[in-house]
Every structure is written in structure tokens, then in C-alpha cells.
Amino acid sequence: MNIQHIAIIMDGNGRWAAQRKRPRTWGHKAGVKAVKSALQACVKANIGHLTLFAFSSENWRRPEAEVSRLMTLFLSSLEKETPELTQQGVAIRFIGDVSAFSDKLQAKMAEVSALEPERQQLTLNVAVNYGGRWDIVQAAKQLIIDHQQGSVNLDDISEDLFHSYTCLAQQPAIDLLIRTGGEQRISNFLLWQCAYTELFFIDTLWPDFDEKVLQSVLDAYQQRERRFGQTSEQLNA
Ligand code: FPP
Fold first, then answer.
1. What does residue 226 show for φ and ψ, rounded to 5 degrees?
2. b/e map 43-57, b = 16+ CB within 10 Å
3. 3-45: pLDDT as tens digits
4. Cα separation of 96 and 133, whole Å?
5. 103-113 and 64-87 are packed helices; what angle lies between their axes, rounded to 10 degrees?
6. pTM for this one?
7. Residue nearest to atom 15 of ligand 1 (CA)
């Protein structure tokens, strides 16, 4: 099974905590543990790229106290977990408009992004203040600048060229997208990148995500036929 890149919308932390009569932040903390098991499971399954939706451009609309605790949790998780992850061969990168975060958090993200593990096993892309439409618009803006400066001709603009301006352009295409927590929508995640991605919506709440859950999705993926617009007969010929 050749899976190179998985993306996950980690949903259900709040409900997981509510089921235990605990505050939502408790669910987010448990969510960090689930991130660690997902990473371990991907390394074990030989999957080289994992992209996680940690904070969407719409998540700012949450109560101020929850947003502030999430920021503290991001910072403390990066401080605490990065050394071990780097040692295990995980390179951590960020996608999204990070300029909205505090200087301290931005500095930490820059420091973590610069780390190169000795034996790289997995690239973890953390999507923060990310939106799929934002990604497409920032790509368009950059392309227009290059056109105005003369390095891109109108006739050269193709899907491939446009793709090269979007986030994750240097990484393999996303084979499958998993959303935990039972909702069946993309919520403005990787809109451009998921054109041919297989989608899996599962009821498991994010803090309960582990190797077993990942394996059940990988088994289901194997049953799917990726046709990329062709017919079944063509693929089997
Ligand atoms: C969605 O659950 C989860 C989030 C908005 C935050 C995700 C953050 C983490 C898993 C922790 C930090 C991650 C990293 C990479 C350091 P929800 O709150 O929408 O749950 P609900 O739908 O049950 O309310």
C-alpha cells in the first residue's frame, strides 16, 4: 500500500471532555496525546507526511478564554515535545497565516521549523490560522506579483504552476483525508490539495484516535479504487 500523505481534521475534543464532565481545554490536552499516537502510528506505517488541522482561520471566533488556552497549549506542546520528535525523525513545519500569533509563539514556530532531524522519517505539517480559501488567495497574489515583475507570462499559468504557489506544493499529494468527530464536511481545510483525495469521516472523537483507528481507515482505503477520472476497466487493463 503506497500512502505518502495523510491529512486529518482533528475534531471532537470538546465533546470528549464534556462526556467526562470536564472543561473543553481538558479535551484539547488529551488531543495533544492523540497527536503523538497519530505520529507514532504514521511512522510505523511508513507514511512520510502528515498534515494536521490544529487551528482554522475561523477558530478565532471561539470564546476568548478557549482561544487563549489553545495558544498556551500550542506553545507548551512545542516546547515540551519538539526535542523528542526531532530525535525520532519528525520534521515539524507550519502552514497558514502565522502573522496573527503572538511574537513568542511565532518565534517558537520559526525555531521549530528550522530543525532538521538527522534521519528524517516524517514531515508533520501543522495547519495554524489556516484556511483553504486563504491558501488559494495567497497563491494568486504571489503569482500576480511574479507576473507583474515579469518572471511569469500569462500563457505559462497552468494548474501545475498555480499548484507550486500553494502550501504543501513541495510535498506529495494528499492520499487521504480523515475527519474525526462525526461531522461530514471539509471546513475550509485543504481545498485545492484535496481535489482527488479519498475522504473518510469517522465517529471517533479526536482524543480517542490511535494506531488501531488509523489501521481501520487504512484498511478501508485499500478497498477504494482511485480512478482519477478513468474507468475501472482502464485501471484494470
Ligand atoms: C477540535 O475539537 C480541535 C481543535 C480546534 C484544536 C485542535 C488542537 C489540538 C488537538 C491540540 C494541539 C495540537 C498540536 C498540533 C500541538 P473541538 O474543540 O471542535 O471539539 P468539539 O467539536 O467536540 O467541540
1. -90, 110
2. beeebbbbbbbbbbb
3. 999 999 999 999 999 999 999 999 999 999 999 999 999 999 9
4. 11
5. 20
6. 0.94
7. 54
CB atoms within 10 A of CB 188: 16
Catalytic residue of the set 11, 13, 125, 175: 11
**137 residue type, one letter:** V
CB atoms within 10 A of CB 170: 8
Which residue from 11, 55, 57 has its CB within 8 A of the most atoms of ligand 1, so it is best to mutate? 11
The verdict on whether 11 is a catalytic residue reads yes
The answer, yes or no, to whether any atom of ligand 1 lies below 6 A from the CB of 10, is: yes
Q: Are 71 and 101 in contact (CB under 8 A)?
A: yes
59 is catalytic: yes
Distances (CA, A) of 61 to 56, 57, 65: 10, 9, 11
Mutate to test the pocket of ligand 1, among 9, 13, 56, 76 (most ligand atoms within 8 A of CB): 13
Q: What are phi and psi of 88, to 5 degrees?
A: -80, 0
For ligand 1, whether the C-beta of 14 sits within 6 Å is yes
Q: Beta-carbon neighbour count of residue 229 at 10 Å?
A: 6
C-alpha grid cell, residue 30? 488529551
Helix (H, G, I), strand (E, B) or coil at 103: helix
Question: pLDDT by residue (tens digit) across 101-130?
Answer: 999 999 999 999 999 999 999 999 999 999
